[in-house]
Amino acid sequence: MKKPLVGALFxxxxxxxxxxxxxxxxxxxxxxxxxxxxxxAQPASAQIKAVNFxxxxxxxxxSGSVVRTAASLPTDPALVLSNGHCLETGFPxxxxxxxxxxxxxxxxxxxxxxxxxGTLRASKIAYGTMTDTDIxxxxxxxxxxxxxxxxxxxxxxxxxxxxxxxxxxxxxxxxWKRTYSCNIDGFxxxxxxxxxxxxxxxxxxxxxxxxxxxxxxxxxxNATGKIxxxxxxxxxxxxxxxxxxxxxxDESGNVTVHQGINYAxxxxxxxxxxxxxxxxxxxxxxxTLPKP
Length: 292
Description:
mainly beta
């Protein structure tokens, strides 16, 4: 998981960034900022200028983004997407789902250049879990229309379909104001880290060397500008299935470790669960997110 508070606080003292990510402290949390990683030999046609920081947010310990579905209305309360392990209430345990819990958490909204332009505030944790996936959704006190009117920034749209292998992507970190460009290398049947197991995770190609504080960053399809996943972890030390060292498990139970490779959790499965007024309805048709 890309990664928790203590290291974040140290980074804030150094860089004035805020506070960094949720999970065990690692060397990445206090490392000097990395340069943006660019995909080598990527065709110019795959580079979409629209991929920037507009609509991303910085949390106290992670990254995130203001998100909507294709069916969201301007008058709906806006939603912020991040990781389940970024929740201010701590890591949800295996099998635990947080649903509709009051929250007043604040988020710094960024413009296209990565500058903070305003503060958004949550009314509740609409949904959060680290079971099968690693996501949190906050409902805000502002509507999509109010955010666009005040800051000229539109929410990022969640892609409603499963992403495709080899797709060119950009991981956009609002916390670090940094981007990472690479491709989807493939999909992992089961990704195990410590006590948690995630299903059908996205494996990046090696160019996306995400670091602590990038947890919760939207993973954007360069061709569409839509979110296809949310950045959440990587194997740092080559260990097997431990915290900060996830392992891959295939259908036959075979375990593989890829040191230095990073991962994300797909987000298309969120779309069917968002109903009228941005309400999370786990009983909606097509919704397969874990229930409490």
